[in-house]
Amino acid sequence: MKNLFEIVISFLILVFVSFFMVTTQAKQIEDCQPKNIELWVQASFASDGDTIIIQNKKFKLIGINAPQKERKQKFNTSGQPLAKESQNRLNKLLANHDMQVGIEYDTSKIDSFNRGLLHLYVKKDDQIYNLNQLMLATGYALFKSEYNNNLHQQCYYQAEKIARSEGIALWSLYKNQPKLNYPVVLSNKITLEDDGFRIFKGKIVSVQKSSTNYILNMDTVGIRITKKYWNNFDFKQLQDLKGKIIEVRGNGFLFKRSMFVKIQSPNAIDRLRKLNVSTTK
């Protein structure tokens, strides 16, 4: 009787797990679908792996960050690995879909550099595909958490997660050439060259609060959350990170020979990530 009971319980657990996995996958697929494509237009070309020129204007793909190309105008900015390959991959995706893209806006339509912010779509055999997701799935871009442009965050994070588990493109680079410190850099191995967008990994050694910032420190990386974004965070949850190893993603910048990263959303930290958020437009 006991064995029969155990068999029934095991079967019910299996059914529940299978149902949960199917339901989760269905939600992820649904999250990739457009909510409101406003128009279809002809794109010109991709200027890098997350930027497209449409009607002579620059548009950034929401929720992704591609390796930065070397820039010599104004500031001499060194490039990141596979930047050219990322640009080529996005241009290939566009060319494979006749350069036609569907435009979907989110809460914020422009960034601080006056570039448009878009979720983009392409068509193939009457099917519509999320272009931002496709780039992440290739492994040539990283998921980027945005505090106010939350449409499709679950979709984008899952696309990166699969590419990472498969070890392709940037994730192959990380596995085979860890000394490049990209796309993940360990806090205890960071150098002054490791600025720009990447994933910083290390143990949180202190959590504090000032009049202007929540302050989380690894051994060599300082995470800062300005007061403007405090409503997005639970300070008790931040305090609970002390002593734990985390991954935080964002733009690293140098200040007085130390590395800092400012974040706006809990989704920038792996242990706080809650992607089942919706945006009211």
Any overview of this molecule?
With 281 residues, the chain is α+β, with helices and mostly antiparallel strands. The chain folds into two domains: 39-170, Beta Barrel (OB fold (Dihydrolipoamide Acetyltransferase, E2P)); 183-272, Beta Barrel (OB fold (Dihydrolipoamide Acetyltransferase, E2P)). Helix content is 28%, strand content 29%. The protein is built from six helices and 16 strands. It has helices at residues 2-32, 83-95, 131-138, 153-166, 170-176, 235-239; strands spanning 39-42, 45-48, 51-54, 57-61, 64-65, 100-104, 116-124, 127-130, 142-143, 184-186, 196-203, 206-209, 213-217, 221-226, 245-255, 258-262. Strands 1, 2, 3, 4, 6, 7 and 8 form a seven-stranded mixed β-sheet that branches. A seven-stranded mixed β-sheet has the order 10-11-15-16-14-13-12. Strands 5-9 form a two-stranded antiparallel sheet. α2 (83-95) crosses α3 and α3 (131-138) packs parallel to α4. 35% of the residues are buried. Mean pLDDT is 88; it is low at 10-28 and 276-281.
Mean pLDDT: 88
Number of helices: 6
Unreliable sequence segments: 10-28, 276-281
CATH class of the largest domain: Mainly Beta
Structural class, by secondary structure, is alpha+beta
Termini separation: 57 Å
* Portion in strands: 25-35%
The number of domains: 2
What share of the residues lie within helices? 25-40%
Count of individual beta strands: 16
Biggest sheet record: 7 strands, mixed
**Shape field:** globular
